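Whether sequence alone determines local backbone shape is best considered at the level of individual chains. For completeness, the protein is quoted in full, as a sequence line and a line of structure tokens:
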Amino acid sequence: MSERPPLPKRPYRDSLVVNLVLAGVILLISWLTDGDVGRAVLFAIGFFVISTAWAWLRFRQRLEREGR
């Protein structure tokens, strides 16, 4: 089984920033394709909340497992 890559120095902040950027990409694509930006805002918020919560949960579990 392969080893996991080391955790970043600030995993919670880094995942927050990445998910924020990806939510912005959702909005940008909607705007560029003349989509419903209001609906895209709802999807982007939903994506951001769910993906950030998932990442933080997994980081917390991994930190507890590794005893940090």
The radius of gyration is 15 Å. Residues 37-66 form the longest helix (30 residues).
